[in-house]
Design a protein that fits this description.
This protein is an alpha/beta fold and 432 residues long. It is built from eleven helices and 19 strands. Helix 10 packs antiparallel against helix 11.
Length: 432
């Protein structure tokens, strides 16, 4: 998103604060790993709910109760089990303040997996040990974020007027919080900075690259991104070094250029807001581009909820929603692998799930599969997530009703289990 909170400790800046945070959720604690017998369960298999008894041992589902093992029996009385949700695009867990504030919200919302897409390496480093604990979400941190010298998020970092925010200079953040590359020569020369940063996914910023006149307007300084040529050079170097590339895009032309560059993921559905006087046509994805993305397995993150951050009036919001619906249908019909992500600083995947329900592009089972199966597996492809078969990680939510018939049930889990550990609200701290 153009003004999503990015790196450093400046995560309260920008229009991400346009939505007030909800009341603080309870903090959860993880019990010991247990061997479980889940009686009268109904579990989501990616298409429908099946009924029966499930067994858990050593953090995974097993075919039957192991001999000689003492089981804890849970009578689920027909409650509905779904895998935990995943958030494929956010920034609210990538510094200590955000992690402390929002990690409990993720667990409360049933979101156990997340990708943070533009973190500052020194800020992220101490969080890696906290992320993935039994009582915390598992997080994929992106710490290589590449933009141009007039690109997003520099405008926000250098012009933060929040109370107490330090006044930063270009040299304070360039090639530190974010990497700045304006030419193919810059990519080659600065690649050691990329190689020194941890992670298997890097991010590049493109924003209306097809409109070079925008670069001559002072108001756009720090809000644009790399050229198509630089994007292609970044992807070549990344793939040569075994890295995947996610591209922030704004326009349909950015989407097309990112595809030509060979990126692995598109971090935004074009059209979450109409910037620079753009029209609907500037954001519509051509069916042939969607087919190309599908053939190459390029992931696209939905981020439709981000539209709510800009204060659009009802008429403009209706145009934005219609554009999002058209793009989602185009990608869906082509078979593009979609991932659920909100890019809403005070939100989680549940925020995006609600928005996609409102847009009514997906069938209920399809949307639930996107949130609980496809996106978790895309974030952590080496793990067996989003399933209840033997060998799958025993992480799930128990819901009071069928979420395919009663969508609000997804927001009311009565039980949270992560790798065989029951998560329960921690006791409130004693008064001093």
């Amino acid at each position: 998103m153009k003004f999503a909170a990015p790196a450093l400790a400046l995560l309260l800046a920008g229009t991400a604060i346009a939505q007030a945070p909800e009341a603080a959720p309870p903090v959860f604690q993880a019990g010991p790993a247990e061997s479980l017998e889940l009686r009268e369960a109904r579990w989501f298999d990616g298409r429908k709910f099946r009924a029966g008894t499930l067994f858990v041992h050593e953090g995974r589902f097993v075919a039957e109760a192991p001999a000689g093992v003492v089981l804890r029996r849970l009578d689920l009385a027909g409650r509905f089990l779904v895998p935990p949700l995943a958030e494929a695009h956010n920034h609210n867990l990538q510094n200590a303040w955000g992690f402390g504030r929002f990690a409990p919200r993720y667990i409360a919302d049933g979101v156990f997996y997340a990708a943070m897409l533009c973190g500052d390496p020194p800020t992220v480093a101490p969080l890696r040990e906290r992320a993935g604990r039994p009582d915390m979400p598992d997080v994929e941190f992106v710490t290589t974020c590449i933009t141009s010298s007039d690109g997003h998020p520099l405008g926000m970092l250098l012009n933060d007027d929040a109370p107490g925010a330090p006044k930063l200079r270009f040299e304070d953040v360039a090639d530190k919080a974010v990497l700045v590359m304006d030419s193919e020569a810059d990519v080659a020369r600065k690649w050691p900075l990329v190689a020194a940063r941890p992670g298997r996914l890097i991010k590049l910023i493109m924003s209306y690259h097809e409109r070079p006149a925008l670069r001559r307007e002072p108001k756009n300084q720090g809000r644009l991104g790399v050229s198509a040529e630089v994007a292609a050079a970044i992807v070549r170097h990344a793939h040569k070094n075994g890295l995947r590339v996610s591209a922030h895009v704004d326009s349909a032309a950015d989407f097309a250029a990112a595809l030509r560059a060979g990126v692995d993921q598109i971090a935004h559905l074009p059209g979450y807001f109409f910037h620079h006087g753009s029209r609907e046509a500037d954001y519509l994805i051509a069916p042939e581009l969607a087919r190309e993305a599908a053939q190459r397995g390029i992931q696209v993150v939905t981020t439709t909820a981000a539209s709510g951050l800009f204060g659009a009036d009802a008429a403009l919001l209706a145009r934005i929603e219609a554009t999002q619906q058209r793009n989602l249908r185009t990608l869906r019909e082509a078979g593009v692998p979609l991932l659920l992500g909100s890019d809403v600083f005070f939100g989680t995947a549940l925020t995006e799930y609600r928005r996609l329900q409102q847009l009514a592009v997906f069938e209920p089972a399809e949307l639930l599969r996107l949130a609980t199966v496809s996106t978790p597996r895309a974030l952590f492809p080496e793990r067996r997530l989003g399933c209840f078969e033997p060998g799958c990680e025993a992480s799930f939510l128990a819901l009071p009703a069928d979420p395919l018939r009663e969508p609000a049930a997804l927001e009311k889990p009565t039980l949270r289990v992560k790798q065989g550990r029951l998560l329960t609200p921690a006791p409130a701290p004693a008064a001093p």
